[in-house]
Structure formats: structure tokens, C-alpha cells
Design brief:
Strand content: 35-45%
Number of domains: 2
Largest sheet: 4 strands, antiparallel
Shape: rod-shaped
Strand order of the largest sheet: 1-7-3-4
Structural class: alpha+beta
Distance between the termini: 59 Å
Number of strands: 7
Number of helices: 1
Length: about 90
């Protein structure tokens, strides 16, 4: 999620979105801490002037889960192709 803001004074940017420790924020290209706001949401401090804010969710477990899922899906597709080819070859030889 990316946002551009401009203000005359420093401020807190509040997002009514669930806080999680895997959220990473950058303000003008520099990392800034993502803090809890109202116990469940997130907020960051933004300096005065024009700012570009980027929020990213970075969870290594999610990446590993995606990789394992893709490998399993590829294996499943290969098994289906192999069994289909085997059926076709057996029908042609009869």
C-alpha cells in the first residue's frame, strides 16, 4: 500500500487496519516503526512536508507456505499428466 501526503507539521498517520508485527513501513525511503494504535490498529509518525509512505506485509512463513503449495501443485499436475499419458499409450497399444 503506498500513499503520498503533504502537511505543514509532523503528524501521526493512523490506519484502521489490523496491526501485526510483520508490517513494515517506509517514509521517504527510510524504515519507520509501525506502532499499535487503539490496541488493534496501526500508526506511523510522518514528518512535516511532502512524504511518500509505503506499507508492506513481510511474513517469511507465508512465503515458504506459498512455495510449498506451488511445488505440491506442480507435482499434482505432473501426476495427472503422467497418468493421462499412460492411459492414452495403453489404449493405443490395444
Amino acid at each position: 500500500m503506498s500513499c503520498n501526503f503533504s502537511s505543514k507539521g509532523g503528524y501521526w498517520l493512523y490506519f484502521a487496519d489490523a496491526w501485526h508485527p510483520q508490517w513494515v513501513a517506509t517514509v521517504n525511503g527510510q524504515k519507520t516503526p509501525v506502532l499499535r494504535a487503539n490496541l488493534a490498529f496501526k500508526a506511523i509518525q510522518v514528518p512535516a512536508g511532502k512524504s511518500t509512505i509505503l506499507f508492506e506485509y513481510s511474513d517469511p512463513l507465508l512465503r515458504w507456505t506459498l512455495r510449498i503449495t506451488l511445488i505440491a501443485l506442480a507435482g499434482f499436475m505432473l501426476a495427472v499428466l503422467w497418468s493421462t499419458a499412460r492411459i492414452i499409450w495403453n489404449n493405443q497399444s490395444q
